[in-house]
Amino acid sequence: MSAYVVDRFHISAILMFTCTGRPGREAREILEAQGQQLLDENVRSVRARYPRENTSDKLFLLDTDVRRLSPLEVLKLIECLEHQSSNASDYYSTPAFRTLHGIRQSAQRKLPGWDQAKWDYS
């Protein structure tokens, strides 16, 4: 299994999925903090996977002009980012995991047919 650090557009697209329109100053600050958290966890994972390589810290800058994604597209980007970020043994207890989990749940609820699907098997 390999790991790499995704670019800021990848993370921005995931985060902008949660917005309707352009985020205001406060929302942008929150999104940038979440983006930094996701990027830091991604870098930490790459360091865990490749401890002999020098992977430097990076600063996250939100791009609010990324193309708006469909629920399916954002789910795939989340899957990729999680794969790249899960090499640290405690990943599933991190704030980054919880952030992505929340966005994943939001995207799932927006999938076509979600509201019409049965809740249980009968």
Radius of gyration: 15 Å
Look at the structure and give the mean pLDDT.
Answer: 95
β-strand number: 0
Low-confidence stretches: none
Beta-strand portion reads under 5%
What's the overall geometry?
A: globular
Give a short account of the largest sheet. Answer: none
Q: Please, could you describe this protein's structure?
A:
The protein has 122 residues and is mostly helical. It has one domain. 52% of the residues lie in helices and 0% in strands. It has helices at 8-16, 25-49, 71-85, 95-109. α1 (8-16) packs across α3, α2 (25-49) packs across α3 and α3 runs antiparallel to α4. It is globular. The protein starts with 7 loop residues before the first helix and ends in a 13-residue tail after the last helix. The model has no long low-confidence stretch (mean pLDDT 95).
Describe this structure in a few short sentences.
The protein is an all-alpha fold and 122 residues long.
Any key phrases for this structure?
122 residues; mainly alpha; 52% helix
Topology, pairings included?
Elements: H1 8-16, H2 25-49, H3 71-85, H4 95-109
Helix pairs in contact: 1-2, 1-3, 2-3, 2-4, 3-4
